[in-house]
Amino acid sequence: TAPSSLTVNGHFAPISGEPATEEQHEHGVQVIDEDKQFNPHLSTYLKHKNIIPAGFNYHLISVFGSQSTGKSTLLNHLFGTEFDVMSETARKQTTKGIWMSVNKRDHSDGGAGSEMRKMADNILVMDVEGTDGRERGEDQDFERKSALFALATSEVLIVNIWEHQVGLYQGANMGLLKTVFEVNLQLFLKDKNSTPRSLLFFVIRDHLGTTPLSNLRETLIQDLTRIWTTLSKPKGLENSRIEDYFDFAFSALPHKILQPKNFITEVEKLGTRFREDYRDSKKPGLNDQELDGGVFLPEYHRRIPADGFSVYAEGVWDQIVNNKDLDLPTQQELLAQFRCDEISREVLVAFDEAISPLESQQADGVRLGNPTIIPGLGDVMRESRTNAIKDFETEGSRYHKGVFTRKRTELEGKVDTRLKALSQGQLSAAHKSGVADFTQAVTAAVKFGQKRGGKGGGYDFAEIVEREKGKAVGKFKNESEGLRIVGAPWSKYEQELRLFEKELGEVSARLRGEEMRRLATRVERWVRSRLGESIGLEFNKLGSGRGGSGAPETGEKPATEKDLWDRIWTTFAKTVREAEAIFTERARSFDASPEEVEVGLWRLRRKSWGVLKAKLEEEVMEGNLLLKLRENFEDKFRYDEAGVPRIWRPTDDIEGAYTRARESTLTLIPLLSRFRLSETSAPPPLPEWVGVPPASLSQADEEDLTPIGGVDEDEGKSLEEEMTVLSETKSQDLGVRFKKMADGVYVEAKRSAIGGVAQ
Ligand code: GDP
Ligand code: MG
User: Fold this and answer.
1) Does the predicted TM-score (pTM) go above 0.80?
2) Which residues touch 377 (CB under 8 Å, ≥6 apart)?
3) What is the ipTM of this complex?
């Protein structure tokens, strides 16, 4: 048998193996070889000839007829093709299988002064192997199969016939036509809905001119009708008429060898009919008298987009060759699936190019623990999505509608899955950085406010939080709005916004906790300074034996000494109450909860007690207290009731005065050693005053607290101990030191009395 490649006019055009080069395609392509193999590279040819992007703007013509009736010759003249032509000397079959070529001419000459007429775009011509079908069974099979193939794909079927064959009903041509009609019925049995029509264009060759074309046409029509009636028709189509499926057109050409000039002119005229402007002339058909109409009616078109033609043709041929019932609607659906998948893959390549780098950028960010916000992501997403879907629609919409719609949904699904993940990643990055920015902004604003200082810390915490929250939410909304894709219902981000706001709330609560601590510290500081002053003042009063620098008093003991602790307790309680009011007001101003305030106040009372204790300890430090006692004693000893300094004379009862003053001052030591209220002689009600720990007290709230005896029972320290200002030993020691000091003063007084006399 023949090799898998053939030579056309000396040009190599392989059917299997590598696709042919553009140059090898110069003279056409073999669609089906003599072994009934379909050329898998047909699409390469269509690509080389730039047919693929034509959509529906292309036409397919097949030529039929007995072997060596000048078919190839006719096509080459009409369309400038270079199909193999039998040499005039060596008579043998040349065309094997089915060949295809594009029309190489733009215009055809209408002749007789009429101008050149534009031919239709992208005409594809198929030269079908002619046989004398009578002779071999094998050939008859091929003839039938190629007729079916041509019918399934072509809009116009040129039937090439000698004039002297017209009317020869038994002739080979009529056998071929019978085949065409039969396969046509078989073909459209399955496709009742669309029943595309075809044009049978009879070209009568070697027309002598003696019999007018109209007569020849009549004869042919009679013959065709006869064939149609004798045809055994499938069930349901018994009453169908030939006109239901075919239109007819006729043309006659003079003898090419005997009248070469006329032949050329007439072929040129015939060429003008391969155009689309059928509207300006009558539709070609049984009653067409004009013989001038354009042949490409839209209803002849098989509606297979050019980019799917090779796949479709191969599928059709596969069905035919395997003797399966040719089911064109199914073929068209299969084609649609195949092509839509292919187109989908193509558009996804471009989509991928735009989106993949962004996906990796995002993944890298997440991997490094630093999610990135990709600037302009929304624009890229929208553009990529629109392009993908638009490109898909441009090509895919030419295919079976149901399949196309389904595949578009699939494509949208694929695209959207990725875009959704991308936008989620973007928003999670925006979330993370938004929370971080918010925390940082609030902290910075507080710090700035603190530096500025002033009443209440110099800033409004609640206002800072509100302002920064507004900014953060605005920014997040902006980002999510930027990611919105119109027409994509999934592209909504309310939930993400809610999560973001929720976390801002949590962060605010944490920051507010910190702010509460800062407030507590500030209020404590205030308490310390107030107590430092007022308690210091109370102790200073001890220096005066007569209760301050006022008028002289009567009675054994000045009220100031006896009421010392009452006044300290009162001052302390009042100061802390003021501090509590300040704390409450400030905490409320930044929305602290009642529980938080309660905890804060409880802590404040305890801490304030600690402050007071520290102040008391400072006051009773050995040196300090001794000094106070000395002052107290000297005040009583050296000044008289009117506050006038005494000048001791030897006659004065120095010893008596000394003893009284000393004993009076000594009573201060036990008084000072214990914090007791004068009325009850009991410690102040510190446990009740501090109160029980609030229910919402947290571990952290308790951690930095110093235990208080009598308040924190499990500390094993009693309230008595808590209220002990001076221990027993310290008191005794203080008494001894004081007495020594007083003795010194007494001796000095004695001396000065004697010395004063001596003077
Ligand atoms: P095909 O087998 O139908 O393609 O026929 P070809 O185009 O190869 O031509 C077969 C032979 O017929 C060649 O020798 C041609 O020169 C000859 N031929 C071509 N056109 C005509 C014609 O119009 N009239 C006659 N009588 N012979 C022709
Ligand atoms: Mg030929």
Assistant:
1) no
2) 358, 422, 423, 426, 482, 483
3) 0.99
